[in-house]
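WARN retry 2 of 3 for item q-0093 after timeout on previous attempt; input resubmitted unchanged.
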Amino acid sequence: MHNFTHGDKRVVFTVLSGEVVGSEKLSETRVTTTGGVPVNGKDGDLTPVRVSSVSIINHEFWVKTADGVEHDVKLRGVDIPLRTGQDISLISALKKDGSPLHTILLNHTASKRWVLRDAGVLNTELELTPFNWKTVLIVSGLCVAGVATAGLGLLAAGGYLCFALYQGSQRKKLLISDLNAYLEKLDTLVASRGRAPSPVQAESPVEAELSFELDSPAPTQSAAEPESPTLNSDSVRRALSRNL
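OK item q-0093 returned
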């Protein structure tokens, strides 16, 4: 797990890395109808009827991690091309109840990247900068005091409200900026791990010597020289007697 901390805010991110072992997409169609309302109360005159449809893609795929466990992932409203055998990493932020908010999907095999939720969307869904009700109470108190102070309290309430809104917007911008920077670093870290080559196993000296002996050709033996015939004294006498 990876932790993002900004002041008193803390967000936990998880990374699911593995091989895609199954992928399925289903299309959900929503049809809405508008119009058909009587005009000026007359049943004969109706507004034009308009029919609109919206198709939503529900993507479900399975990721098998290095420990052999298969994890089910469901995406809604996004169309991401995935096929069986590809290596991917999915970065997700955890809500307070532990449910994931899928943020970035990296396809290491295809060298592609999809941002499912940026820092602004995460800020809204995780409620990192909620509405400050304390400001409302202070402004309300100043307004009530303004009645007794001939409007001075109302001016103070207006000034404090503008100051509080400005401070809140600045805090929100700073948090989103820091969260974006953290997501980029986490994205780079996960991408570098996905592209890391597998270590090369070095041969031991014994294995290297054996392979050399097996691959080297065997020495060739030179052909034996033919033996010269041996001459003795008896054979010489017989040869001379024939000539005579």
